[in-house]
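ping. complex inputs:
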Amino acid sequence: MSLDHRSGCPINLSLEVFGDRWSLIVLRDMIFGGRRHFRELLNGSMEGIASNILADRLKRLMELGMLTKADDPSHKQKAIYSLTEMAITLVPILAHLGAWGRVWLPVSEELSIRAELLEKGGPPMWDKFMDELRHEHLGMPLDTPADATVRATLQAAYEAVVASKALGASTTA
Amino acid sequence: MSLDHRSGCPINLSLEVFGDRWSLIVLRDMIFGGRRHFRELLNGSMEGIASNILADRLKRLMELGMLTKADDPSHKQKAIYSLTEMAITLVPILAHLGAWGRVWLPVSEELSIRAELLEKGGPPMWDKFMDELRHEHLGMPLDTPADATVRATLQAAYEAVVASKALGASTTA
DNA sequence: AATACTGATTGCATTTTGCAATCGGTTGCA
DNA sequence: TGCAACCGATTGCAAAATGCAATCAGTATT
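pong. complex structure:
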């Protein structure tokens, strides 16, 4: 944790935390992709993060208090990364960021459906999602019985779009 | 505008826009500081941006459609930078970012009062602020008569904290 | 015993960043 | 008419970050 900051401005300090091209990508994959292991993050990364960058970011995010690391009981050298409350409360920011990107940037249809649903779900959906993340990562009791988790809902919507696009491509070809 | 993106994910694309240590700082100073000129941004920058970095970011933000540049009628070589709608709609994100930073990072009291007020004001205040920015930067008509602008309100609060801290320091010394 | 997988680390070339000095042109003032 | 101050940048250069490929030692599987 670096103690010398450029300024005490909240926006600046936030930028010092994830003002780079990879930190938020790692957190996104953990939050929305449910990834907990190094290899999952490495191979599952859509943007193709390099292993040294990933190792560096995981270390940095741990130093910053956004992640913790624990041993996986099933595999002696397997490590499980967990989100802290600090990282979980990024959900509303990620939702806004996704909503903004969806409006102004050349997003792909299948990758923006999650952002769309999360935007439409609004704060209630974000709260439910954060509750689920606290359960998964912090071992907190789950409020609702959770018939379908937010992540599963988003994932299902994503897969539906992918399937529908594949269908459309085959019928219009 | 680079056409080769790492992925079509909204969060990734947003990160490609301001996933660096300076872009959002420049936008913050324009939005909250009301700065429109190169020198204002250069000398007024709390974090001490270098002139080449500033020039590069202004150029990049223009290419991305976040800023426009116009001649200042009062000074032949003076340029006025304006926010586009794309940049103005970042206000809610900046508000959330400030709120998050205020909770989790070592913010200074005087620099976080703006974030606190903006958080408490919520979406209605953000909308009013965005309306004012559209008036300032895009020449749009102003809805409300605007007794006190949001920026002036935030600035006054900032100065009040600074004054109160100076007072406290002198009386406790 | 062989193979594949675990979380990384190393070396190295390329790219980006940050700092300091400086540029040519404009403006205000004496 | 000179001249200093200011305008938006640009240049040169060192340092840091990034990205890629190869590799590591320990662990599990077969």
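The mean pLDDT of chain B is 92.
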